[in-house]
Amino acid sequence: MSGVTLPEAPWRSRARLTALCDALGAAAGDARFVGGIVRDTLIGIAAHDIDIATRLPPTDVMARLRAAGIKAVPTGIAHGTITAVLPDGPVEVTTLRRDVTTDGRHATIAYTDDWREDAARRDFTINALYADPVSGTVFDYFGGLSDLTARHVRFIGDPLKRIAEDHLRILRFFRFLARFGDAPDADGLAACAMRANDLMALSRERIADELLKLFVTDRAPDIAALMIAHGIFAPVLPEVTSANRLGHVAAVEAAAGLAPDPVRRLAALLPDDPALGDQLGARLKLSNAQRKRLISALTPETGAPHALGYRLGIEGARDRLALHLPLAEAIVAIAGLRDWEVPRLGISGGDLVAMGLSRGPDVARALRQIEDQWVAEDFPDAPRVTAIMVEIVAQTLRGSTSA
Predict the structure, then answer these.
(1) Could you report the per-residue pLDDT of 312-332, keeping only the tens digit for each?
(2) Which of 95, 146, 322, 393 has the fewest CB within 10 Å, making it most exposed?
C-alpha cells in the first residue's frame, strides 16, 4: 500500500463499471484496476482502456459476470483474460498470473492469488500499479510511483531477464520512454542494445504495431535517433539510419496543425525509394492502404498542392509536401489544402461521343487531355471545362481528319 489514492476521473463513472467491480468482489479485495488506466490517471492524462486484475479464476469470472447480467466474452481465456462488455466499452478482466516458461514470444502461465507475483511479471515499474476500485488506494510493489514522478522508465528487476521473457519489451522501452520518460535508464538502454537482435524472432506485425505507436509520440524524433545510435533498428529495419527528416516532418505537422501520422513518420525515416516502400510495407505486413501511402510518400516529386490532392488524395498530398518541401514552403502548401474538397471533373466519354468523337482510344486520350488541362488550370468552373472540352475535341477531330 502506497498512501496514494487514485484521483477521480471521467472513466470511473462509466455505466455499469461499479456493478462489474461488485460482481468481481472488489469490496473483498478480489479485484483491482491495473496498468495504464492507473498510471495515466495518476499523471492526469486521458485514460480509456480499463484493465482489471482479479484473484478469481476465469471460470468464476465468467459465472459472476453472467449472474450480474454482464456479457462476458472469453477473448483470451488461455491467458486468463475475459472481456466484460459494458455500455461505454469493453473492460478486460485478467486473473493474476505468474510465468512458468517464456521463449521471448510466448509465455506459459499459471494462476496465482499473489498481487506482488502478478506485478513481478510485468515489464516496467510504472505499469505495475494497482488501485482498489472502492477506496482508490494505489498499490505499488516496485517503486512505480516514484519512477512516474521522476519520469523514469525502468524495467522491473533485471532488464535482460525481462527482455528474454518478451523481446517486444525492447521496443516498448523506447515507446514508453517517448511518452513518459526523461533521460533513458542506463541499465535498460544497455540491455536493449545488447539484445536488439532478439527482435528478429518477433512477428513483423508485432514490430510494426509497436513502432507505429512510437512514431506518433511528441518525442519520436529524439527517441528514433537514440534507437539508431544504439543499433535497435539494424536487425529488423536496417534502412533506418537517420532521424533528421523525421524531425523535419514532426515540425511541419506541428506548424501546419496536423495530427502526428504514423505512416508519414515511418516514411520520413526511409530513403526516397518507392520500391523500398513497397517491400518494407510487405515486410511489416502493413495494410494495402498503408503500403500505397508509403510508396507514394517516398516518391519525391511534388507540385501544386491542389493538383497533388486531386491525384493522390489529401493525405497523400500532405505526405509528399511534408517530406519533400522545406519547412516554410511545406507549411504554406499544406495550408492550401485545408478545407479544400477534391472536385469532380463532371464529364464522361459519352459527352465527347455526343460532340463527334468515335468511341475508343480517341475518347480516352481526349478525356485525359481535358483532365490534365483542368488540373493545370487549378480546377476552373463548368463554363471553362466546356471550353476546354470543345478545344480538345476540335483538335482531336482535326487530327483524325488529317490522318
Answers:
(1) 999 999 999 999 999 999 999
(2) 146
